[in-house]
Specification:
- The chain is an alpha+beta fold.
- The protein folds into three domains: 2-239, Rhodopsin 7-helix transmembrane proteins (Rhopdopsin 7-helix transmembrane proteins); 307-388, Orthogonal Bundle (Helix Hairpins); 396-551, Histidine kinase-like ATPase, C-terminal domain (Heat Shock Protein 90, 2-Layer Sandwich), CATH 3.30.565.10.
- It is 66% helix and 10% strand.
- It contains 16 helices and nine strands.
- It has helices at 5-10, 14-36, 41-65, 72-83, 86-98, 106-125, 150-174, 177-207, 215-236, 241-262, 267-348, 357-388, 400-417, 442-458, 491-496, 518-528, and strands at residues 131-134, 143-146, 396-399, 420-426, 437-440, 463-471, 477-484, 532-537, 544-551.
- The protein has a five-stranded mixed sheet. It has a two-stranded antiparallel ribbon with strand order 1-2. The protein has a two-stranded antiparallel sheet with strand order 3-5.
- Helix 14 runs antiparallel to helix 16.
- The radius of gyration is 44 Å and the shape is elongated.
- The chain binds adenosine-5'-diphosphate.
- Adenosine-5'-diphosphate is lined by residues 451, 455-456, 459, 484, 486-487, 489, 497, 503-504, 507, 514-520, 544.
Length: 554
């Protein structure tokens, strides 16, 4: 080791220069990764790996530059000892990266590094067992000689690399999405670098005549691994290249400014340059801060959107379960209720003998209330069918004139019972036999119209209800309209009544039992018929009008 450093530098080959510059650059790069996230253990270990690689590169260059000079034995021992530290550090980085948040206890570290100490021990205390240097004699050049222990050395290197790559493969299998892509890239880079380094730095000296001619290729492979891994790590951790670029740019600007200070030609010049430098440094810190904040908020939005995705999936599952529950519960409630309603009706009709007046009145109440419950339950069942997409439609020609007039005559009695005037008109237009045929599900359309008439009766304390069936001016559409002189509604109410469970404010004073489901179901049914349903009113207390527009049969 008595060779002067300058001599070594002078005799460096181009390849060695490449190794030195390359490992310096990559150490710097791994430093940037660490600097971006000082708290992350994997980035710290990546930096250490970069440093270890730099030491290996420098020792290699020294070895190469002083090859065939005296003291080569110490040189080669040092080279193999520093090369041996690279695999455990690569393994350590891969271990922490793959086994997330793994705590690196002292005992674990000792276990990971004890093979290394053993190798160094063998190298130092058993010279020649693994590798030695045969000095030049006469014309024969000096060369590297491998001992029996070289197999142990090779096994040591391979074991670290294989286990490290194995961990990465495991992590690759377990992960998904962009992480899988990132890990695939890292796996590729580590594998290619490891195989090249093993072939060129470990095994090639055994076969190549010069012994160490191809060492530099192994180095280069590891040097190339670092930028590739840096790129992947930056993506993987969402460290943004924007921050690095901004900070790098600002560092260069600051460096130039400081250099400028030394080049000042007068005191005034120095003063102005100092002020400018200070201003720029001050504003740059703001710039870096704002870039960092922007990236942090982007990350937060990304995390939030992932959480939202998860929540919405959970909500969908819950909603489905709710619909299922509603459907099961409604089915179980409907059958006994129908029986109650039926028996109440039979009792009031005297099928079981004459009943006293008070008993008849009570039974009448049971009949009416169970009727409400049956309607409510069938609304619930409709909702669960609509939401699960199980509402079946049986489309065929429907004569709306027959349907509306039939319903009108059925419900007229109920309206008159509430002391309301009830009229139903069909606009015959120019043609006496004007047809009001549409294609639809008769039962469902009946449900819509009867619900609207029923609502008018419920929400009209006094006055009249009038039904009209007509055609649109172009004669293509069938329009059913219904006007009442009831409680009317505000603009706001008009907007919301077609929504689920939506009722006008204070409406329960007029009619208590409402659920706010009828119009929602009606709207869904009309939607399936590609028609329109809407309400109009001149305001609270001024009555309401409801319209259903359906496509006439062509
Ligand atoms: P429900 O009648 O059971 O409350 P609907 O969905 O049928 O449910 O009606 C929703 C709401 O629309 C009612 O609660 C009421 O506020 C309003 N509404 C419906 N029809 C009329 C009407 N003819 N006049 C005034 N308000 C009405």
């Amino acid at each position: 080791m008595s060779v002067a450093l300058l001599d070594v530098i002078n005799s460096l080959s181009l390849a060695s220069w490449g190794v030195v510059i390359g490992s310096l650059f990559t150490a710097l790069l791994s430093g940037v990764v660490y600097w971006q996230d000082l708290t992350k253990r994997s980035s710290k270990l990546f930096f250490l790996f970069g440093l270890v690689n730099l030491v290996w590169g420098l020792v290699y260059a020294y070895f190469e530059g002083s090859f065939a000079t005296s003291g080569m034995h110490a040189g080669i021992t040092m080279l193999y000892a520093t090369a041996a530290v690279v695999p455990p550090f690569l393994f350590l980085f891969l271990y922490v990266f793959s086994v997330e948040d793994s705590q690196l206890s002292k005992s674990k570290l000792l276990a990971f590094f004890s093979p290394y100490f053993a190798i160094v021990g063998i190298l130092v205390f058993y010279p020649g067992f693994i590798v030695s240097y045969e000095e030049a004699v006469g014309d024969t050049l000096g060369k590297i000689v491998f001992g029996e222990g070289f197999l142990i050395y090779a096994f040591y290197v391979l074991a670290y690399l294989l286990v490290g790559v194995g961990l990465l493969v495991k992590k690759y299998r377990e992960s998904g999405g962009i992480f899988k892509t990132a890990i695939r890239g890292l796996l590729f880079a580590v594998s290619v670098a490891s195989v090249t380094a093993v072939m060129m730095s470990l095994f090639s000296p055994i076969f190549a005549s010069g012994g160490h001619d191809l060492f530099w290729i192994g180095h280069l492979a590891v040097i190339l691994l670092i930028p590739l891994a840096t790129y992947i790590l930056i993506n993987y951790n969402f460290w943004n290249i924007k921050i690095i670029a901004t900070e790098l740019f600002i560092s260069i600007v600051v460096l130039v400014l400081i250099t400028e200070l030394f080049l000042a030609i007068s005191l005034l010049d120095l003063f102005i340059k100092t002020i400018i430098a200070m201003l720029i440094i001050f504003s740059s810190s703001f710039l870096v801060g704002s870039v960092k904040r922007e990236i942090q908020s982007k990350e937060r939005i990304m995390r939030l959107s992932q959480e939202l995705d998860l929540i919405s999936k959970r909500l969908k599952v819950l909603d489905k379960k709710k619909s299922e529950f509603l459907s099961i519960a409604s089915h179980h409630l409907r059958d006994p209720l129908t029986a109650i309603k039926g028996y109440a009706s039979m009792l009031s009709e005297g099928s079981f003998g004459d009943l006293s007046r008070p008993v008849l009145e009570a039974i009448e109440k049971i009949f009416v209330s169970s009727g409400h419950l049956v309607t409510m339950i069938s609304d619930f069942m409709d909702i669960s069918r609509i939401e699960s997409g199980d509402m079946n439609y049986n489309f065929k020609d429907v004569d709306m004139k027959k349907l509306v007039l039939g319903l009108a005559s059925e419900m007229k009695q109920s309206a008159e019972h509430s002391h309301l005037t009830f009229t139903a008109t069909v606009d015959e237009g120019s043609d006496d036999d004007e047809e009001y045929v549409t294609v639809g599900d008769e039962g469902k359309l009946r449900q819509v119209i009867s619900n609207l008439i029923d609502n008018s009766i419920k929400y009209t304390p006094r006055g009249e209800i009038s039904l009209l069936l007509c055609k649109s001016p172009d004669g293509k559409k069938v329009i059913f309209s219904l006007s009442d002189t009831g409680i009317g509604m505000s603009e706001l109410t008009k907007e919301k009544i077609f929504k689920k469970f939506s009722r006008a404010e204070g409406v329960s004073k007029v009619y208590t039992e409402g659920t706010g489901l009828g119009l929602y179901v009606a709207k869904e049914i009309v939607k399936k018929h590609e028609g329109r349903i809407w309400a109009e009113s001149k305001g609270e207390g001024h009555g309401s009008s409801f319209y259903v527009e359906l496509e006439g049969k062509k």
